[in-house]
Amino acid sequence: MKNKFIRLVLLFISTSLLAQVGINTPNPGSTFDLRGSFATPLQSVAANTAGDKNQSVINFTSSGTFTLPAAISGNGNFVGREYQIRNGGLSNTVTVQTSNAETIDNIGSSISSFNVPGGYAITIKNTGATSGKTWMITHMTDTNVNQSNNGQVIYSGNNGDTTKTTIVGNFIFRFSGGSPSAVTPQIAMINTPGTTVNVNVGVNQLYSLDGFEYANNALSFTAANYSTFRDIPASGVSLAPNELNIIHLIDTTNGKYYRVTFYVSGSSAPYTFALIAEKF
């Protein structure tokens, strides 16, 4: 009886140990414990691609659509499967879409497709459901380390200097040439857009003599005009000395918000031109 009990205990212990798998460690601390590097498949594509069981990381080198596989009921259900999808070009248009009538969980709502912004990568995971919300986005990040979230340029002079610029996100900002009372806030894009980029603008203008003014504007950037600088405000364009302009820009195409401050300080030359741009 005692021997049977000992064998039963040993069997229980060995079964518990086998419940955890370790690689490069004799004492795994998790169900799967890997002590070392590992590799997953990396595929670069330049056209429309359908997801399958052999893919893991997909890098789009040009515009295209990634179609998620249709759900499987019962044997073969791939609950937990993940894809990492990267838009490898700022001017690419990369779309992720579901199959059949399936949807993606979008924090309380359902969508059947979405665009991955240029330079971004997303991780999408299968929920195991066979209809409805079969996928969910678990991570999204900007992979372009050269795209700053803020920038500034401050200089002194009699006139605005068009060579003094700051780049934030995919936009470049500057003062136009000319003296205060004629100088204007300007914007252009730095990379050719794969599709029209629409920007809504709201401008707060503060001046000690004229008080407060607010103006709206809408700008569209295409492959034909993206690099052409244009005035940001639609009215009250010029900045007088000691006039503060705080500009709110919403890139509705890529879902980005920018706040840009233009300020000309001083009552006589040389003036101080201050430009501060932020991306949120």
TrEMBL record:
Domain of life: Bacteria
Keywords attached to this entry: Signal
Span of the signal peptide: 1-19
Protein name: C1q domain-containing protein
Organism of this sequence: Chryseobacterium shigense
